[in-house]
Amino acid sequence: MELKTLLLSLAALPLTRAETVLGVYIFHRHGDRSAKSLPPVNLTSLGADQVFQSGNFYRERYVSSNASAPIHGLSTDIAVPSQLSVLSPSDAVLQSSSIAFLQGVYPPAGSLSVSTLANSSEVEAPLGGYQYVPVTSSTTASTSTNAESSEWLQGGSGCGNAVVSSNNYFQSAEYVSTLDSTKSFYSNLSPVIGGVFGSSQATFKNAYTIFDYLNVGRIHNATIPSSDLLTSETVFQLRTLADNHEWNLAYNESDTIRAVAGATLAAQILQQLNSTLTGKGATPVSIQFGAYASFMSFFGLAQLHKVSADFTGVVDYASSIVFELVTNATAVSSTSYPAAADVSVRFLMANGTAAQNPLTAYPLFGQGEVLLPWTTFASEMGKFAIGDTGAWCQACGNTTGVCASSSPSTSGSSDDSGSAASTSGNGISLPVAGVIGALVTLVVILGVEGLVYALVGLKLVKKSTLASALAGTGAVGSNGAAAGAKA
């Protein structure tokens, strides 16, 4: 009986190792930072360690010589820049996080960094062989290095329809009811937050900024004025209200243009994974650092909030989501690279640094399985991905600036260009959905390089200062609460 069990176990072993990881796309939040309400905002030592540990986790999973799920063809000890695509907004906290993360993925090379010169002398690279992995700025906007001190719009910056959609939330019965019912809750916290938030600012309207201020204080300050008011129930309520506030700004099921940040992120993911396939693994690793509302927007579009209510909350510092491109093909090489029909995608998430929180697989798009065929994944992502200037301009209803030279699709009805009347089930205009669907078909059938172009013309735009946000103005354009990816 024991021999039979052993033989069965050994027979199953090759099956568990048959899967090959062809590439990954990692979207990562920054680590612990100082409070947004007290600029300048900086990455803390704790935050740097969080993302470094996360990078080390992913090294042990995908990169090292004894990795648990090694990526095919990836260099194990010396970073090869052409194998890595790393993006981060030009922001001090996010850029610093990306650099710390990469040092976990590819730590100093030590003796491998020693070069022998023609005269037989040896030279070791600085800092024990510190590896310089290029990080590309994902914005062309003129932003300061202390941009974390302000609210942000990523992907949706300047998107007219998204701004209107977010403004609509502030007029909704749900928002007004919560604003009224929580007045006493926030006013009772005046002894704790009064030095930063006046009585007119201490409301649900600033739910996240207040939570952020107190959350940072509880992590870093040994003494907090009137800290006895911050009971476990109060802290839980602060977090719950902040989650509710930010979720409603990041996603709305009946008006999904509000989630334009998630739609543009989806296009980047799809384009890069497709590039890995068509390039036969030339650039198998893509890493992007971004802000929490991009997570939330994508979660809504991918129907993850229907899997768990946890997906409607603000992700913790150093959280990450991963898209693994995998195959069960028996042999993978540059000459025998698997066809799209033999490739699948798995979505995983770690809420908080992956070194301390489990990386867990979840089903996307309401599907029953966590492993989706590439064709299914590409088709579902293409239903809401927005990745080229023309599609973005039409979905946003923009006609000026970069959109002035973008010709709207002539298919369909002659509705006003800024109208959202003609939409698909995903809240994106039908002409845009048609264009995206056609591109997905080309990817699946023809293997055309790149489903969508990188976000041409899209910029990460700095919003108004926090002081202006706390002034309590009503419009999203001035108070910095619009539908984008806030860090």
Task: Name the helicity range.
Answer: 25-40%
**CATH architectural label:** 3-Layer(aba) Sandwich
Helix/strand order: HEHEHEEHEEHHHHHHHEHEEEEHHHEHH
Strand composition percent: 5-15%
Low-pLDDT windows of residues: 1-16, 140-156, 408-485
CATH class: Alpha Beta
User: How would the global form be characterised?
Assistant: globular
Mean pLDDT: 80
Number of strands: 12
Separation of the first and last Cα atoms: 57 Å
The description of the largest β-sheet is: 8 strands, mixed
Q: Which homologous superfamily in CATH is the superfamily? A: Phosphoglycerate mutase-like
Radius of gyration of CA atoms, rounded to a whole number:
24 Å
Q: Based on helices, strands and strand pairing, what is the structural class? A: alpha/beta
Organism: Hypoxylon rubiginosum
Protein name: Histidine acid phosphatase-like protein
Please describe what this structure looks like.
- The protein has 487 residues and is α/β, with parallel strands linked by helices.
- The chain has a single domain, classed as Phosphoglycerate mutase-like (Rossmann fold, 3-Layer(aba) Sandwich).
- The protein is built from 17 helices and twelve strands.
- The chain has helices at residues 2-17, 45-63, 92-105, 126-129, 160-170, 173-181, 183-187, 190-193, 207-220, 232-250, 260-278, 292-301, 374-382, 389-396, 430-446, 466-470, 476-479, and strands spanning 20-29, 84-88, 114-116, 122-124, 136-137, 152-153, 285-290, 320-327, 343-350, 360-361, 371-373, 461-462.
- Strands 1, 2, 5, 7, 8, 9, 10 and 11 form an eight-stranded mixed beta sheet that branches.
- Helix 2 (45-63) packs across helix 3 (92-105), helix 11 packs across helix 12 (292-301) and helix 14 (389-396) runs antiparallel to helix 15 (430-446).
- The N and C termini lie far apart (57 Å).
- The model is unreliable at 1-16, 140-156 and 408-485 (pLDDT under 50).
- It comes from Hypoxylon rubiginosum.
- This is Histidine acid phosphatase-like protein.
